[in-house]
Amino acid sequence: MFGVVLALLMIASIIMVSCWDIEEIEDLALISNIAFDVGEFKEYKMTVQILLPEALGGAGKSDGGSGESPVFVINAEGQTAFEANRKLREYLPKRPFYGNTMSAIIGEDLARQGVMPVLNILETDHEFRRSTQLFLATGQGGKVLEAKIRVMANPGDIPMGFVQTLPGISTTVTQNAGDFISQAVGNTMEPVMPVIRVIEADPEIGENPEVRVAGTAAFKKDKLVGFLDEKESGGLLWVLGRVDGVISFQAAKTNESVTIELTRSSSSIEALIDESGNLSVNINIRTEGNLADQTGFADLADPKIRRSIERRLAETIRQEIKSTLNKAQKELKTDVFGFGEVFFRTYPRLWSDTLEPQWDDIYPYIPVNIYVEAHVRRTNLTIEAPVVGGN
Amino acid sequence: MFFFPWLKKPKLKRKSKAKDKPKGISKQKQKCPGDEPTFAVSKRLEKNLEEIQHKLGNSNDIVIRSFLMGKENNHKGVLVYVDGLVDKNMVHEQVLKPLIYSTDPTDLIMHGFLKDAFKKLENTSILVADTKEEKCLNKALESVLEGQSLVILDKVPSAWILDTRGWQTRGIEESTENPIIRGPKESFVETLRLNTAMIRRRIHSPDLRIETRVVGKVTKTAVTVCYIEGIVDPNVVKETYKRLNKIEIDGILDTGYLEEFMQDHPFTPFPTMAHTDRPDKVAANLLEGRVAILVDGSPAVLTAPAVFMEFLQASEDYYERFVVSTLLRWIRILSLFISVSLPALYIGVVGYHVEMLPPALMISIAAGRGGTPFPVVLEAIVMGVSFEILREAGLRLPKQVGQAVSIVGVLVIGQAAVEAGVISPIMVIITALTAIASFSIPNYSFASAFIPLRLILLFMASILGVFGIMVGLISIVVNTVSLRSFGVPYLAPITPARFAGIKDTLVRVPWWLMRRRPIRLTDNEIRQPKGQMPKEKKGKPQGG
Amino acid sequence: MQEKISKGQFSKLVTLIIISTVFLTLPRRLALVAQWDSPISLVLGYGAAWFLGVIVIWLSLKHPNDTFIEYSKKILGPYLGSLFGIMVFLVIMNLNILTIRLAGATYIAAGYTQTPIIVFAGATVLLSVWILKEGIEVLARVAEFFYFPLILSIAILPLTVIDKLSLDNLFPLLAFGLEPVLSGAMLAFSIGIEHVFLVGLLISKIQNLDKKVYHQHLYGVVIGAFIILLMVASTIGVFGVADIQRFYLPPYQLAKVVEIGAFINGIEIILLGIWTIASLLEVTIFLYISVHILSQLIYVSYRDIIVPLAYLFLSMAMAPMDNHQVESEFTIVGQFGILPVALLLVAFLVPAQLFYQWKTKQKLGGDSNKEAK
User: Fold this and answer.
1) I need a surface site. Which of A106, B1, B291, C12 has the fewest CB within 10 A?
2) In B, which residues are within 8 Å of C264 by CB distance?
3) Would the CA dihedral through C102, C106, C108, C109 be positive or negative?
């Protein structure tokens, strides 16, 4: 009898306190992207892009996609990212929900200052994901969130869409928050971020601002130190082994342009220490591609022509990597390639005892040898290019 | 349909075994046992008639027909039967006619050689196959009330009980509980003897025991216990009889009454004794070592012990090919899970863990819930209750209309509610899915067990999200695991794990692999030898 | 207590206790000590734990109807045996409290930010008390029922993150010599031998006791250790050692990064559901061990002390309300847990058993066969 009464009391008390953590989904502000900047009044400014599901057209309502914008941008400032997040509630009647936040955009000023204080929240709070994609915005991060592109019905999908299509052109990297934090905290490799720019539209035409993603931002620990342009980003991707795009170059004899579509590529980095204690690094690249397009009439069935194209391809790749090395290693002095990592794996004791404390000084002067092996395999639908002029 | 030649001799009045009665009342010839004051058949016919009238009252359907027999047509006799329970033809042609026309010496009676006369008359005049002598008028009248005829001759202190039973009964139709596509379609009827006959037809072994008791003080219903000796565990049989004998009630109308008296755990929603109206299912259960209990007047037959997994098995599984049956079993287990937990999962995810949803789905759900007035939990409860109301209503409507009303009703009402902006569309989908999933469970009373469980899980999910759902599920499992049915653990072949059982519950291996009986109900486990797999004929390739 | 469990259930209980206690926290603790050598030290540690288990089974088979408290009293004498029992009880009580605490804290860290921890811990303890009141048979059956779904789900988790795995993170092995390996192995050993106490209690409850118990024990330990190894290896492979040392619950983070086809990315809630079952079984088994040890020490029927003991543990677990995530506040056994006590078990009991056997052989003279089996 007593047990029954106890059980009833417990149940009643639980119901009356009304279930601490339940939240109706319509009371949540679904945030699809966020941006961090240096604040004007406080330290950090956080901009959020809120999704309005009704405007996207749910079922049951006969009108959907009524031409209203399905996103809504709002910002707030605070001394930490979390405080800025809480401040949002002064402007927002719904609770911000970050469970499906897909990407975070960092403003340039904040990046130069050091980005870790805002990224901390991405790892600690249980609602954020480590797989949030990061972008660096030239200028204000918040502006990017206001951009619209006609082809995307939901502007909230823009950054994620880029993440899925960018690997195809290898002019920039993709980076998620988890890897960025791991690399920034660790000291074997330095992180990078893709760069997103807002293109202001011509005020006379009055279109919405658009975005362009190209180039990479290089960091040392968590501070922005410089940019790599498209070619240099390509070189970085070569070294990291994540290339999947196209390369164009001039053919040897005829100076016609040839574009190769790269299908498979892999890279390996070797760290060598010779007897006298000199460090050097070998980068081995192996890649395969298609002849995608050319302005000339090179016939790939001819082995000589093919070998010439392959040689040119390898040479172009080498040049790209060299230019990247110049920029990142010598100029920016940041180990975005992960040479430190390779040294650590090969000589762990040496690394932790000697190399690591002085890595900043050693790294810019390490000689790097690049070996590229390139093959051009297929020619798609035609073997012989159509020759104009005829017999 | 002429059943009447098929009616076998009903050993209804056989006394229960000596071990069940407190003291040894061995033979019935000495006294007339029984609760009411007893009355032996007297030599004087008038006294008998008086007693009969006194006991049976003035019921119109009881026919008392006096006649004269004997060489000189001067020996009085009386025939008593109940109109409507007897085969009139048999009574006229085979009882009355030969008695009246009999010219056998009643002088034997006159001279007091009673035994011979009785026997001689029985052997020569009465043309009914099943006859018995009865010295107690009480028991004789009980037999009359069952449809037998009573013949009492003057000056003879015994009566004949003649089996002339025959009444209108429902024809053997297709089962309404478990319709089947391939396989036997017979189902039990309300007459006990026909039902036991259907079982006998399938099991011709002499080890099949069919033993009958009488339960119910007023209704005096015949209850039959069947089992196959040598396969069944004797303890189970003993336990069954023990529980059956403990029942004291005025009337038994259906096996459901018996079930409530005999089950192990009266308070759990799960049935611990299975019931079915299909003889092939009962025969299969008997072959696995179970005990079957039949009640006169009800087509539902109980089988005990019953385990959880057997409620998820349909007869069709065994008649169809095993690959398909295995797949269908998995679908049934999946739909069991869905029918219990889908609304709870929905509330747990949408209310507590929205990050689990893929973004597109989240947008659809959020859009759908945009204008609805109810919180999620209330919506789920309202839809769930409406569905139960519709289903119950569908059962009461005539058969053709009923099925349509329940499912279509949910969808139509749901659609209307969605358009009015009262319910979110995804809730309608969830409810409909739950409903359809619950229909795929073969046993209706088992499926009904899950209705309160569904509500409990819903409640737990609304309090604590996924943690609540898991706590609810674990509670259900713990409760189920601690049940026992006649000594067998309720979740038998799963835990305690028994490979032979899993071969028949989670999958359905081909018959030639099911060497042992699935649940350890008995020590007689092996039911077929090895090496039965049909071999493919290797030989010349077909064609030229 | 006529209840009996089968050998298969015994093996499953061993596996479950090995897995449930640590699959969320071990990667971090191991990575702190052994870094890249965690997988190796894990294998070594659990191997040693298995060996200790074999010794305990050998001991228990000599006294087939007694639990290890009862026969330690027989062998060591009543006072020494009781002292030993009290030590074991204290250690298990500590483990119990930590377990209850962790069971609740995981939910708070994972998403239930506002619910007080006592709801989770209390619900778990309530369920354990219910299961225990039903008896060991029901506990074994519940464990058996949930065994396959639990093992399969935990094993599938690393498979879903294979695309994020970078094998480089697991190397270099043995880079810094044997010292990290050995200290990691000690840690794994001290965790692995928690199951030894369960073994000591359960042997007396197995029906059809025979030499096959060794095999079942082996299966149980191997499967449990393999699952933990999968978990440790995959967390290191995906995150790298440096990160794991910062995470509170690495497998939970692992579940968070699962992305199947950019469509399914909320698996961590399923892991939370799995954790409900695992932590419940763990709390129940530890409570079972404590209850039985105490009931045999002070000669009280075990059913009477289930509820008071559970309530005591619950209150002790809820006591430090300040910081949800500090475990070391109330550890009376140090970082290496119950290692000392378990080693004592072997060190004292084995020679004591041999001595006891020799003594009884002497006493009975020719009838030595009676006791030696």
Assistant:
1) B1
2) 358
3) positive
